[in-house]
Amino acid sequence: MSPKFHGRFAPSLSVVLAAATFAGTFLLSGLLVVLDHHRQKAAAREEIRTDAINLASNLRYPVQMLLVRQDHGALRSVLEGVAGDRRVKQALLIDRGQRILAAHRSDVVGREVQAVLPEALPLIQRALREKHLLCQSLARDSLYLALMPIPTTAEQYFETEAAAVLLLAFDTAFLDARLKTHLGLSLLTHALNGTIFALLIFLILEQVVTDPIRRLAKALRQVREGDLRARVRIPRVIELGEAAHAFNELVLRLRAYYEELQRQHRELEALHHATERMKEQYRQLVELAQEGILIADTNELIRYVNPAFARALGYAEEELIGRSILTLMPEEDRSRVTAETEKRRRGESSRYEVRMRTKEGELRDFLVAAAPLWDEAGTFAGSLAVMVDITELKRKEEALRRSEERYSDLYNNAPDGYHTLAPDGTFLEINETELRWLGYRREEVIGQLTFGDVLDERSRRIFEHALLSLKEGGTVRELELEMVRRDGTHFPVRVNMTVEGDGQGALRYRMTVRDVTEQKSLEKQLTHAQKLESIGALAGGIAHDFNNLLTGMLGFTELALRELSPRDPRRELLQNVLTLGQRGARLVRQLLTFSRRIEVHRTTLDVREFLKEMVGLLQRVLPETITIRLDVSEHIGSLEADPVGLQQVLMNLAVNARDAMPDGGTLTISCAPVTLAKPGVPPLPPDAPPGAYLRLSVADTGIGMTPEVQARIFEPFFTTKEVGKGSGLGLSVVYGIVRAHGGFITVESAPGLGSRFDLYLPLTERTAIPKREGSATPLIRGADELILLADDEPVLLDLEEKILRAHGYRVLKARDGQEALKLYEDYQREIAVIVLDALMPGVTGIEAARRIRERDARAQILLVTGYNPEESGLLGIRVENVHVLQKPYTPRQLLETIGRLLGKSQQASLPA
C-alpha cells in the first residue's frame, strides 16, 4: 500500500482508540472466558486424575494379591466393581505380553491389547518398563487412562519390567457437555460487562491519551522527515510529555545497556561452562582419590563419602549416608572427635588420629585433616574431612619401634661394650655396659672424653699406634688394653676396631670392647691347676720310689726285731728306726694324697654327725684360747666321701688356723648346700661342672695372707713357717683329698683379716648308714704252699722271700715280668699265689697278670704298687682272683693278704 493510499484511508486516532478499546475489552473478556473455561476444564481433569490415581493405588495391592494367587474370578469381580462407576469406561489387567489377563467384560479376556485399545499400547509398554503409575488422556476417544504396574514379588522391583499393568480408562465426554453450557453463560456475561467498560475507557483515553499522542506522532513524523529541531509540546502534568521529552535519550541509553548486557551474558555463559568443567574435574578427583573424603553436617551425620572411604570400611556408599560418624568409632575415641568438631565450629581446622571400625568389626587407624564448612549466612554448616588409612603405617611404626627398642636393649645391655669415636678419638656414642664399667654418666663421656683418657699410659700408646695403622684401612682385632675406671682402678679389655665414613667424607671408628677380667682370672686358675697337677705328678713319682725304700726298711726292721730278745738293748734302736720309717710312710701317703695317687675308700657320710664328732676331736687338739663355732644349715644331705680323708682335711685346716692365731681367736666351721647353674662359676675353676654341692667353710680370725702367698699356698713343701715347724704338705694334702673326692677348694684372705677356705664337695641322694666295728684278721701260717714272687727291686724281693719262708711258704723269685712268666709256665701246677710288682721294666706285672689269667682263669694273683690302682692302669683288670696291695706294707699285711687268697680266712676289704 502506497503512502498516499495509506494517508487517505488511515483511520483517526479516535477511531483506532475506540476500536482498540472495544476490541481490547472484548478480547480481554474473551480471554477471561477462555481462561475460566480452561480453569474449569483443568479442574475437572485434575478431579478425574486424582480419582484415577486414588482408585489405581487402592486397587494395586488387592490386584497384586489376587494375581499372585492366580484367582482370575476374583480379579474379574474386582474389575467389574470398578466399571460400575459411570466414569470408568474400561478396567483391564494386562501382562508383559500385552494380553488381557482380566477385565470388566469377559469377551475381551485373553485378547491382545492391540485389538481392544491400540492407542494405549505405548503407555502400557512404558508403564511395564518404568514400573510407576502413569496417567494420560486419549483425546480421540475422550478417555483418561491410569496405568498402575503390578509386581508379583518384591524381587521384581529390581527387574527390568513389572509383571502386569492395571489399566483404568475414564470417560471425559460428560465433562465436555457440562463445560459447553458453562462457556455460553460466561460469554454472555462478559460481553455485556465489556461493552460498558469499553465505553468508559474510550471517553477517558480520548482526553488523556489521544490528544498528547497526536502531538507526539506529529513530532515523530517531523523527526522521521529529518527535522531534528522538532519538539513535542506536551504539558509536564501529563506523563506522555515527560516520556516524549526523554524519548530519544532513553532509546540511546537502552541500546547501550542492551549491548552491554549481551556482552556480559556471553561472559557469564563462558564462566558458567568453565565452572561446570571445573566442578566435573573436582568430582572426578574426589571420586578417584585414594584417600577417604567425607562431608558431615553439624550433627556429625554423614552427607557424602567417596568410594575410597567406603572401601576402607567395607561399606557401600549409600550405607554410610545419613549415619552418624560417631557410631563408626570406639566409645573411647568419640569425646576427642566431638572436641575437634567444636574447634571447627570456632573456625579452626583440625588434624588428628582416630580409630574407626569396619563393617567386619576390625579397628583401623585414620589420619584426619578436617576443615569447617559455612553456609551463605556465614553459619557453621558441617565439616569436610580427608581420611587417610594409616593402619599399615601404624603397624610398621610399631614394628619399627619394637625393633629399635630391641636394638637399643641389645646395644645397651650387651655383655660387651660398644662405642664410636671421632677421628680425634672423642666419644660420639657409647653403650650402657661400657658406661657401667667405667663409672661415668653418658653426658660426662659423649663429646667430653677421648678413648685415650680411659686408658693407662701403656695402653694409650698401643691404641694410638693401632689408630695410625687403622687409618690406612682394614681392621684391628684382639687388641689387649688396660682401661681405667673413674675411681682409678684398672681392668683388662680386648678390643676390635673398624673404620667407616659418615657419608660426608669424615672418618669414624667403631669399637667393640670385651671385659676379659674373668677370663684372665680363669686363665690364672687354669695355669695354677696345671702347675699343681704337674707338681702332683712329680710328687707321685717321688712317693713311688720312697714306698719301695720304706717297704724294705720297715720289713727288715720288723724281721730284725723278731730276731732279738725282748731285753736286747738294740731293740730300742730298731724300734726308733721303725717309728721313723712309719713317719716317713705317713709323709709319703701325704704326697700321694696331694697327687691323688692314693686310693680313696668312700662311704655315704652323714655330714651333721661327722662334723659334730670332728668338732669334739678338734676341741681336744686345739688350745683353749681358740673358740670353735659350728654352723650347719638344715637339710644338708649326705656326701659320698672318705671319712678318714675328710678328717685329715679338717685337721690340717684347723692346725693351719691354729698357727695363724698364736694369741687365740675364733675358728668357724660352717656348711650349706649350693647349686652351680653353669660350669666354672667364679671363684671355682673352669672345669667345675654344674650340680648340687656342699660348701664346707673353715674360717679363722688369724693374721691372713698376702695375694702372693695365696698363689702358692697349695704347692707341696711351700710354707711360711719357721724351719722345723712344718713340712709344707698340709694344704697340698688338703687340695689332693678334695680333688680326689671330685671337689674344689677356694681361699679368701687378706693380711690382718683372717682366712676362709671353701670346700665344694658333690652331694649325693643316698642316705648315710651307721658305722659298724670290725675285728682284726688273725695271722695264719702257711702250709708249704709255693709262692711266685716278681719284683725289680732285689731288696724287696729278698724281704718278701724271708717273710714268706719264715711263715711256712716255699718261694720262687723272678726279677722281671718275663722271668715270672717262664717260672709260671714251669711250675704252673704247684704255684698257689703269684705276687707281682705292678710296674716293672720290660714286661710289667700288669701285663704278666693278664697273660697268666689268659692261661688260667683260676690263678690267684696279687699285684703290689706304690700308686693308686685307678691311676696305674690296674682298674681294667680288677676281676676275680686279681688283688692289689699298696706299698709300703708291713709283713703282717703281706701275710694276711696271701692268707685270704688261699682261703685261710674270710674275704675282707684290703687295708688302706
Describe this structure in words.
- The chain has five domains: 15-179, Beta-Lactamase, CATH 3.30.450.20; 289-396, PAS domain (Beta-Lactamase, 2-Layer Sandwich), CATH 3.30.450.20; 414-515, PAS domain (Beta-Lactamase), CATH 3.30.450.20; 599-764, Heat Shock Protein 90; 786-901, Rossmann fold (3-Layer(aba) Sandwich).
- 48% of the residues lie in helices and 21% in strands.
- Strands 16, 17, 18, 19, 20, 21 and 22 form a seven-stranded mixed β-sheet that branches. Strands 2-1-5-4-3 form a five-stranded antiparallel β-sheet, sandwiched between helices. Strands 7-6-10-9-8 form a five-stranded antiparallel β-sheet, with helices on both faces.
Features:
912 residues, 27 strands, Beta-Lactamase, 7-stranded mixed sheet, alpha+beta, single chain
Concise description?
The protein has 24 helices and 27 strands. With about 900 residues, it is an alpha+beta fold. The strands form 5 sheets. Strands 16, 17, 18, 19, 20, 21 and 22 form a 7-stranded mixed β-sheet that branches. A 5-stranded antiparallel β-sheet has the order 2-1-5-4-3, with helices on both faces.
Round the Cα radius of gyration to an integer and report it. 66 Å
Shape: elongated
Q: What is the count of DSSP helices, taking H or I runs of 4+ residues?
A: 24
Tell me roughly what share of residues is in helical segments. 40-55%
Q: State the distance separating the first and last CA atoms.
A: 171 Å
The domain count comes to 5
Q: Which stretches of 5+ consecutive residues score pLDDT under 50? A: 1-7, 771-777, 870-880, 905-912
